[in-house]
């Protein structure tokens, strides 16, 4: 008998970061805290108004559609989705139905190191609704959000687990941020999720349950995991899964029944009479260019620099850091063909990124340049400074935005003559440790190096100092 397999499809709503709203010139400002300020007769649905399409929203939507490898419908149009709800003053939402902007795409991503591909059924344009705030015994409505450009992205039911859904959504958000069309911040409601979950034997689709209003990636993942478990248990007991809409209880972390699924015809869709169809030509579509996308960048960084999967991912998720990495490496290579790239990668990922997180800074906040980092690392390789100093300098640079050249002047290594002198001093001041070393105690050497580090405030090449110290101890015999 076939195994029970979950199939998950997602519906994702994405607010675009345009200057103005979808069909009027009101500002699209997600940070506006004063309610009902960015409104006009169009986005509050007064009688007799005429909407006009925001060209930038259309271009952004095409950008995403291209990045999702979709077929763009050169002829597509808006439809009225009729329903009554207080957040919708027109009693309909302008959306797209039979002919969406784009269809039949896919997104490639990785779950851990495993390659995945999910088909995209459609990407369409619509407008956001107002926001309802429920208080104790009344509700408030804020129309600032009404009419903000919204994209709906619908996948095929290709996802097989809650973890896969999470990885897919994370890749989609990264892609959206690369395109610069939205910040896609779930906490601000800029991206919202719905999941269709069904469980059935083999490849057959089961009864579909829709989980609505998921505001975070964690809720998306947990609600899917719960729903898979619930449906699997029902089926194993021979019980029926009911087609319905369920909500997710954020506190109990369980899904609960809300209502039986309404059918599409309940919305009485019909073509929007106040807006002309969107007619695109290939020339216009071609003018909309894409940057290097995360999936491409991952592949290129891996091939070009021979980095590990984990290193590549850190760089792809930090685009600024990735650019810094590539520029620094090309600077270093101009001086030194054989420079070990791992040193640069470790410094960037473990140290620089760590300091940026510790001090809550961005690379672009600093005056630090790839040439300066290249210079530091060349000095490190030439043993003019040690790794400890590089790390200290980087921390200062991030914390205080200090000038690297000034820091370097203050932190050159002690000269070799000086080092010989200090070694003699350390040997004569630590007779006990010298005795122990001669008796073969390994720890004694470490103790003497520690003393030398304190004398020089760490400004030594440790390997060289260790060799000189051993030589001096032998002479001292
Ligand atoms: Zn308006």
What kind of sheet is the major sheet? 9 strands, mixed
Straight-line N-to-C gap: 81 Å
The general outline is elongated
Give the strand line-up of the largest sheet: 2-6-7-10-1-11-12-13-14
**Regions with little confidence, pLDDT below 50 for 5+ residues:** none
The amount of helix comes to 40-55%
Give the DSSP E fraction (strand runs of 2 or more residues).
Answer: 15-25%
Count of DSSP-assigned helices? 15
Structural class: alpha+beta
**Overall pLDDT score:** 92
**Ligand list:** zinc ion
Count the strands? Answer: 16
Account of the protein in words:
The structure is a single chain. The protein is an alpha+beta fold and 477 residues long. The chain has three domains: 4-287, no CATH class; 294-410, no CATH class; 416-475, Arc Repressor Mutant, subunit A (Orthogonal Bundle). The chain has 15 helices and 16 strands. The strands form four sheets. The protein has a nine-stranded mixed beta sheet with strand order 2-6-7-10-1-11-12-13-14. The chain has a three-stranded antiparallel beta sheet with strand order 5-4-15, with no helix packed on it. A two-stranded antiparallel ribbon has the order 3-16. β11 (191-201) and β12 (209-214) form a beta hairpin. It is elongated, with a radius of gyration of 31 Å. Zinc ion binds next to loops. Zinc ion binds at residues 21, 24, 26, 39-40, 42-43, 147.
């Amino acid at each position: 008998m076939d195994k029970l397999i979950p199939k998950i499809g997602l519906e994702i709503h994405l607010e675009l970061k345009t200057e103005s709203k979808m069909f009027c010139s009101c500002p699209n400002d997600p940070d506006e805290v004063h309610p009902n300020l960015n409104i006009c007769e169009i986005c509050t649905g007064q009688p007799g108004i005429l909407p006009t399409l925001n060209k930038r929203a259309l271009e952004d939507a095409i950008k995403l559609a291209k990045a999702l490898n979709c077929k763009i419908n050169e002829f597509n149009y808006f439809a009225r989705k009729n329903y009554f709800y207080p957040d919708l003053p027109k009693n309909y939402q302008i959306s797209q139905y039979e002919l969406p902007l784009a269809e039949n795409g896919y997104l490639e991503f990785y779950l851990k190191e495993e390659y995945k591909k999910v088909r995209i059924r459609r990407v369409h344009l619509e407008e956001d609704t107002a926001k309802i705030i429920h208080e104790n015994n009344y509700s408030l409505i804020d129309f600032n959000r009404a009419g903000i450009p919204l994209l709906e992205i619908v996948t095929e039911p290709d996802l097989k687990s809650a973890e896969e859904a999470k990885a897919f959504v994370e890749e989609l958000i990264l892609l959206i941020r690369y395109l610069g069309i939205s910040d896609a911040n779930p906490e601000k409601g800029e991206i919202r999720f719905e999941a269709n979950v069904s469980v059935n034997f083999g490849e057959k689709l089961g009864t579909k349950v829709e989980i609505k209003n998921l505001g975070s990636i964690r809720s998306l993942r947990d609600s899917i995991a719960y729903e898979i478990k619930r449906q699997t248990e029902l089926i194993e007991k021979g019980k029926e899964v009911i087609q319905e809409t369920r909500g997710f209880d954020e506190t109990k972390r369980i899904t609960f029944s809300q209502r039986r699924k309404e059918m599409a015809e309940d919305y009485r869709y019909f073509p929007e009479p106040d807006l002309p169809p969107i007619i695109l030509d290939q020339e216009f579509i071609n003018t909309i260019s894409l940057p290097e996308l995360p999936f491409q960048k991952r592949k290129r960084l891996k091939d070009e620099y021979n980095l590990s999967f984990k290193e590549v991912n850190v760089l792809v998720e930090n685009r600024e850091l990735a650019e810094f990495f590539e520029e620094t490496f090309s600077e270093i290579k101009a001086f030194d063909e054989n420079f070990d790239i791992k040193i640069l990668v470790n410094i960037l990922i473990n140290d620089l990124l760590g300091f940026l997180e510790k001090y809550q800074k961005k690379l672009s906040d600093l005056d630090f340049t790839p040439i300066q980092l290249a210079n530091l690392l060349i000095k490190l390789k030439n043993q003019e400074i040690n790794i400890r100093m590089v790390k200290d300098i980087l921390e200062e640079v991030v914390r205080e935005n200090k000038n690297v050249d000034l820091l370097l002047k203050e932190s050159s290594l002690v000269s070799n003559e000086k080092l010989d002198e200090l070694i003699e001093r350390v040997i004569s001041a630590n007779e006990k440790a010298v005795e122990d070393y001669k008796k073969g105690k390994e720890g004694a050497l470490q103790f003497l190096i520690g003393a030398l580090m304190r004398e020089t405030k760490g400004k030594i090449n440790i390997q060289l100092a260790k060799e000189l110290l051993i030589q001096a101890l032998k002479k001292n015999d």
